[in-house]
Amino acid sequence: MGMVLMEMKYDIPEIRHGYANQTLYVDLSKKTIEVKPVDEKMKETFTGGKGFDLWLMWNGLPKDRVVKWDDPENEICIATGPLGGVTTYPGAGKSIVTAISPLTGQPIDSNVGGYFGPHLKFSGFDAMEIQGCSAEEVYIFIDGDEGLVQILNAGDLPDNAYDITRILTDRHTAKGGRDISVVSAGPGADHAWMGCLNFSWWDNKREEPRYKQAGRGGTGTVLRNKRVKALVAKKERLTLEMNGPADLDMLKAVAREHSKEILELDSQQNRMRVVGTAHLPGIMDEFDLLPTRNFRAGSDPEAKNLHAEVWEETYTNSGKGWDGCWRPCAINCSHCIEGFVPKTGPFAGKKVIVDGPEYETIAGCGSNLGIFVPHWVAELNFYCDAYGIDTISFGTTMGFVMELFSEGYIDEKATGGHNLEWGAAKAALAVLHEIASGEGFGGEHFGKGVQYLKGYFASSGADVRVMEDIGMVHKGLEYSLYVTKESLAQQGGYGLTLKGPQHDEAWLIFLDMVHNYMPTFDDKAEALHYFPMWRTWFGLNGLCKLPWNDVVPPDNSETDEPAKVPRHVAFYARLFSAMTGRQVDGDDLVHMSEKVYNFQRIFNIRQGKGLRVNDSNPPYRSIGPVTAWEYESRQERYDSQLQEKCGIDCSNMTSEEKLAKLKEYRMEQYMCLTDAVYKRRGWTRNGVPTMEKVNSLGLDWIPDLVTIVKEHQADEPPSHTLPESDEGWK
Ligand code: SF4
């Protein structure tokens, strides 16, 4: 047991209508612990979850300067939401983490499973706010049964997330592990900007802690920079009544309806209970949307080795029992591989559990690297988690490096001696092990991501223009794993996000490309308004998004707006009303999100970002073909677009000439889409919320926010005119 460096005893409040009505603040530099009140204005404006996190950061960070990720003043905040911890509702166990990101320099948010958020709330805190840097390695223990918060010396703890979690679970449990959730990063996060956080949950069936990752944007890096090895939250018993719902019967009824529907329909739809998100590689491969070899192509003959049937065989006990990162979740999609034996690194030859792999990891650490052997994907998954590294950023960064290497733009001198050809799984693992040790190319360079590596490779002579086009990074964040080249709407779905190209704001590829639901700019803009707002709502409430649209009602396609899954929107409105006592409908839920969404945009501006210039210039590979090979692989589509949309007779043009014309056209389309989306969101042409929008959302009570908005109202970017037909390309 580590020495107690500071502790605070507190009275555990009664949770009322989903809120503890207080937050926990820990200053690691001063070794102080405080409780802060939550008032009605905070709840009304920010709802909870990500909204609370951002509001705490807004007030906690210095306001007179841009805050860097490694400033002691940077904060890491974790919250669930008013619906977090509903013990009968599918997906109601999520936590949302925020910090100023090492990769993007602005607030990042990550929505993650595991029990930490609910344990934190039932311990008496709607959110936790950590600031400062400790002089020594520490961990923070919240005992929600005793009303005790401690900062303890962590000098005796190992580095990797798996061992840390096991030791702390054994050390603090009174219930064989079921009462504990641990948050930890790992040694990789010490040497990388893409460090993730592992949130644990107790697997009753296997009697083991299991994990979900808050992957994006380097929150693990921030935690390790503060010299925190782990956060532990203990709560012996979670009950439905503990959340203090306003209408318990209504809450039970809507939870029953939603769970019943999932149990009846999942086996006829995505089979999440059997394969989870691993049902996606096959579908993406079929529709030419699975990133292969650094997003160059969307399918590959070898990709069948990564399809659902393979993972169904590989996951142990899949579909046969409880496998949910939130105990009552009817979807139960958190599959794993037990008895997996790594072939490299410190766990070589030992049996371990791999949590996943899930879709993004299969695509990122598999097809995107030209690796089509499931074992290597699982081994990369295991070590990324153990070391606290985001599999998405790792995979997208490695894809970039492998393309540069395979195409001869860089050589082994630039990669520290690693032969990083396509498919070089052992070399990719060697780089990953270096990130953990802090040595070599991996430890010194790779872990800082694509944006950094573009500069690093440029210094050794690599072609800057090529790297700008193929480096799949925007706003500093590596792309998540969908090919967007042929969907203008999804280009906006990635490019016009708050935090960078992560699909959790908008996933419009199928609606756009397959169903053709949004042929005009206005249609696309409407979708790029509605879906980011709607999806934000899950992060305000401590919910998982998968139960919303991964299993849908049988008559959903006959509704007016099937993409919104109207019956489920109504479920969520009833759930929120039952918990909080505020009678709301679907529009009210979107309005809640719009407040926080605009607030986060203005927070980005405060950090010197969040303007049109930051939304512009995504890597061209996310918009169209970069190389002649890419063009020729879809020549018919591209030629007809040049002819029909641009009026160009390209019959005598070389591929390079056609590439240049297509690029001009597609970039212009992206800029026009940007105009249309800003207009729909109520923003100026420079991407700043108008004062009218701020007033309508009721954010005008925050004086320093109003000052920032007013300062930026007049900035106007160069004009882009919508085409007369107002049609986006298809
Ligand atoms: S749907 Fe899957 S990821 Fe979401 S809460 Fe349920 S088990 Fe966890």
Mean pLDDT equals 94
CATH superfamily of the largest domain: Aldehyde ferredoxin oxidoreductase, N-terminal domain
For the biggest sheet, the summary is: 7 strands, mixed
Care to count the β-strands?
Answer: 17
Task: Describe what this molecule looks like in 3D.
By secondary structure, the protein is α+β, with helices and mostly antiparallel strands. It folds into three domains: 4-243, Aldehyde Ferredoxin Oxidoreductase,  A, domain 1 (4-Layer Sandwich); 275-478, Orthogonal Bundle (Aldehyde Ferredoxin Oxidoreductase Protein, subunit A, domain 2), CATH 1.10.569.10; 488-712, Aldehyde Ferredoxin Oxidoreductase Protein, subunit A, domain 3 (Orthogonal Bundle). 40% of the residues lie in helices and 12% in strands. It has 28 helices and 17 strands. The strands form four sheets. Strands 1-9-8-13-10-11-12 form a seven-stranded mixed β-sheet. A hairpin with a 4-residue loop joins strand 2 and strand 3 (32-37). Helix 1 packs across helix 2, helix 17 (488-495) packs across helix 19 (521-541) and helix 17 crosses helix 26 (655-681). The longest helix has 27 residues, at 655-681. The radius of gyration is 24 Å and the shape is globular. The model is unreliable at 724-730 (pLDDT under 50). Residues 90-91, 93, 113, 324-326, 329, 331-334, 544, 546-547 line the site of iron/sulfur cluster.
In short, what is this structure?
It is built from 28 helices and 17 strands.
Please supply descriptive tags for the structure shown above:
730 residues; Aldehyde Ferredoxin Oxidoreductase,  A, domain 1; Aldehyde Ferredoxin Oxidoreductase Protein, subunit A, domain 2; Aldehyde Ferredoxin Oxidoreductase Protein, subunit A, domain 3; 3 domains; six-stranded mixed β-sheet; 28 helices; 12% strand; globular; disordered C terminus; binds iron/sulfur cluster
